[in-house]
Amino acid sequence: MSYLKIPLTGVALPGAQHFIIPKDNISYIQAGAVVGGFASVDVFLKHSALGGAAADELRIQFGQAAPAAGFSLVDAVQDAWTANPGGLVTKLGGIPATVSASGQALTFCTVTGVAVI
Predict the structure, then answer these.
(1) Is beta strand 18-22 parallel, antiparallel or unpaired with respect to 26-31?
(2) Rounded to two decimals, what is the model's pTM?
(3) Beta strands at 89-91 and 3-7: parallel, antiparallel or unpaired
(4) Per-position pLDDT tens, the chain of length 117
(5) With the C-alpha atoms ordered 69, 115, 112, 46, is the resulting torsion angle positive or negative?
(6) Nearest-angstrom CA–CA distance, 14 and 24
(7) Cβ atoms within 10 A of the Cβ of 40, count?
(8) b/e string for 88-103 if b means 16 or more Cβ within 10 A?
């Protein structure tokens, strides 16, 4: 089985450094709602009732309003989902939040929360 590993920053889940989703439980991914001025990506699951919740969707909350021009949060999550590094774990990351005039990434988007919705 392979997994999508999402590194967490800040107070996303107290004591947790990563959030892990089995890739075979992901049905599809789409842009989420803007929450508090910050971007999000919604991951729809094949199996519901995570932790007893009557939901089948996870909202990945980012700490930025949007990535740098030319980059997509949804594409980054989809690319991580479809990647297969030896069939094990794919880590979401490396999404530029700001870039210099020469195109060098200066800061990166961070995940600040994952919610069952």
Answers:
(1) unpaired
(2) 0.83
(3) parallel
(4) 789 999 888 765 667 788 888 898 888 999 998 888 899 999 988 865 555 555 578 899 999 999 999 999 999 999 999 987 667 899 999 999 999 999 999 999 999 888 877
(5) negative
(6) 26
(7) 23
(8) eebebeebbbebeeee
Q: Measure the CA–CA gap between 49 and 94, rounded to whole angstroms.
A: 31
CA atoms within 13 A on the CB side of 76: 24
H or E segment to which residue 114 belongs:
strand 111-116
DSSP line for 52-109? G-S--EEEEEESSSS-STT--HHHHHHHHHH--STTSEEE----EEEE-TTS-EEEE-
Residues 77, 109: Cα–Cα separation, whole Å: 12
- Give me 101's structure tokens: 């005039």
User: 59: how many CB neighbours lie within 10 A of its CB?
Assistant: 17
